[in-house]
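Dear support,

Our group has been running a series of protein-ligand predictions, and this particular one with adenine is the one our PI (initials K.S.) wants archived with full inputs and outputs. We had some confusion internally about which version of the output was final, so please treat the block below as the authoritative record. The input we submitted was:
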Amino acid sequence: MSIIADDENFIKQSVRKNPVIKAESIEFDKNFENSIRPKSFDTYIGQSALKETLKISIAAAKKRELPLDHLLFYGPPGLGKTTLAGVIAEQMGVEIKITSAPALERPRDIIGILMSLKGGEILFIDEIHRLNKVAEEILYPAMEDFTLDMTTGKSQTVKTMRLPLPKFTLIGATTKAGELSGPLRDRFGIIHRLEFYTEDELSQVITRTAGILNIEIDKEGAHAIARRSRGTPRIANRLVKRVSDFALVKYDGKITQEVANSALDALKIDNYGLDSTDRSLLKLIIEKYDGGPVGIETIAAAIGEDVRTIEDVCEPFLLQAGLLQRTPRGRKVSPETYRHMGYKVPQTAEQQNLF
Ligand code: ADE
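Confirmed final output from the archive:
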C-alpha cells in the first residue's frame, strides 16, 4: 500500500483532540493506525451487509478477469473507508495507491497519478467531494473509457491528445456524499454508505487491537471503552492506547471495567463518548440560545472551531445520537441533550418535543 498524500481529515481530527499535538505524534498515530488495520474480510469487523456485497462484486470481477467497478464509500470519518479499500486491494491481489482530493490541486497531480497506475490497480481518493473542477474533468474520461485527454499549447495552437490508460479501479471516499457533483457520482458503479458500529462490534475491534498490542483486557473492559467510542473504530482504537497507558501507570496494566471507566473519566470522555468540544457546542446552544436554532457559523465562532470540523467530525455522531438536529434555521438540541448535559428540561422544549 503506498500513501501518496496526507489524509488531511485524519490530521484535522488528531489536532482537534489535542490542538498542540506535534507533527511526530500525528505520524506516530498514523503508523499505529496502519499497524492495526485489518487486511482481510475475516479480520475486518462490522459493516457485514456491505462486506457481503463487496465479496460478490470481487468474485464476479475475478471471474470476468476485469478490474472491479469504480466504488464510492460515504459516511462519517473513522468508520474504516480507507481500511476497506485496503482489504479490497488485498482480496483482488492488486496494489493500491492512496491520495486525497486536497493534494490534487494542479492538473499534473492527478495526471501523474493516473499515468503511474498499472493494469488492475486501485486508486483511492479520500475526501473526493473536495476535488476541483479541472481534476474532475480529467477523471471523467479516465473513469469511463480509461483514457487521458490532455491539451497542449494555447488558444489557437491548442492540441488535444488522447492517451490510453490501463484499466484501473477508482475508490472514492467522502464524508459528504451530497457535495459530490452529479456527473462524478454517476460514474461510480457501486455506491455504499458505511454505518456507525454497534457496541458489540466496537468491543470486538478493541479486543483485536489490544491483542495485537499485547495489552491485557477483559470483556467488561472492552465494552466500557466501546460504549464511549461514538460508534467509531478509529476512536475506539485510540482510546485503547490511552486507557492502556493509564492501566500501566495507575494499575497493574490490565484493562478492566473499573480501569477503563476511571481512565475515560480522567480523559473527560463522558458516557456518550462526547469530548470537551462536543460538550461546549451543546452547552452553548442550551445556555446562550435556549436550545436553538442557531446558525453553524455562530456556533463555530463562539467555540473557536472551524465550521468544517464541526460539520465533519462533531456533528455526524451528535445527530445520530439524537443530541442535535439540523433545521433550515440552524442547529437545535433535544430534551435528551438537556438531561445528558445535566440541565433541567425547559417546559417549552418538552412541550414542543423539539424532535
Ligand atoms: N480497526 C479499524 N477498523 C476496524 C474494523 N472494521 N475491524 C477491525 N479492526 C479495525
